[in-house]
């Protein structure tokens, strides 16, 4: 099994898993890809506008905080096989 997935399975909120996908808490490793995604006009067409990297990092922080404090919120989705 991928070492990255093993790490997430040991967290207090390990997430949910199917045969193909893993829903897990956000990590610092997700921040750059999250910010890149939210900076794209095609992705952010329905919301007001694309986000700056600083705005995306703040948003990701709120997602993480919600999961840690409440036990629910938005989770990261990755392929179970690769952890990406």
Question: Which tags fit this structure?
Answer:
alpha+beta, 3 helices, three-stranded antiparallel beta sheet, 84 residues
Stretches where pLDDT falls below 50 for ≥5 residues?
none
What's the average pLDDT? Answer: 80
What is the helix fraction of residues, given as a range? 25-40%
Distance between the termini: 13 Å
Q: Which class of secondary structure composition applies to the elements?
A: alpha+beta
In DSSP terms (H or I, runs of 4 or more residues), the helix count works out at: 3
Q: Using only CA atoms, what is the Rg?
A: 14 Å
- Widest beta sheet: strand line-up: 1-2-3
Count the beta strands.
3
Envelope shape: globular
Characterise this structure.
The chain has three helices and three strands, in the order H-E-E-H-H-E. It is of the alpha+beta class. It has one domain (3-79). It has a three-stranded antiparallel β-sheet, with no helix packed on it.
